[in-house]
Amino acid sequence: MQKQSRKRRARAFPCTLLTVLLGSASVLGHAETPSYRALLESAQASAPRLLEQAANVRAAQAQERQAAAWLNPTLSATYENLGAPAPGGVSQRQDTYALTKAFELGGKRAARIEAEQRRTAATGSREREARLVFASELAVIYATAEAMQQRQTIAETGLGRANDDLRAAQAMVTAGREAELRLAQARASVAAAEAALASSAADAIEALERLSALVGAPEP
Hints:
mainly alpha, two-stranded antiparallel sheet
């Protein structure tokens, strides 16, 4: 019973993980598998790689806006002779206040703005390139995950047929119509089918874990 429970969890995990990737209620085998386009759109708001690039663009845009602003004036204060004696009752303290305003001459401000604009453009180009690379990598991993799930489905079908054959062999051996060798062969086929299912389930889980890590989805 415990062995069968582990098998059921292994078969259910890929379906559950793919459901989490899109936040939907789809279950493989009972509903339509989420499309690559839908998964790509969902990943725009969760993939760590894309979120990092988007943050870099926002930071560059903020720097560009800051570069376009005029420099703020500076207010400074200086206090002298605070502890000096006061002959004749006249304090020797001197307070000096200065308001300084810097003016950028010779095209310095324009050059600073242009430099930040170029930096923003370069950051935007890197973000677009990162999105293209991400979409390509997601397509490969998504196709791999689909193939592994199909392989798992085939393995499940094979195990079902092997169990049917085992039951038939047991009935024929009990009725004396087949030798014990036939029953041993059927049991060996079931064992091989179980091993194939376990292997395909592990491969499907691994592929979906890679998919989950890429798009930044939490594991169930």
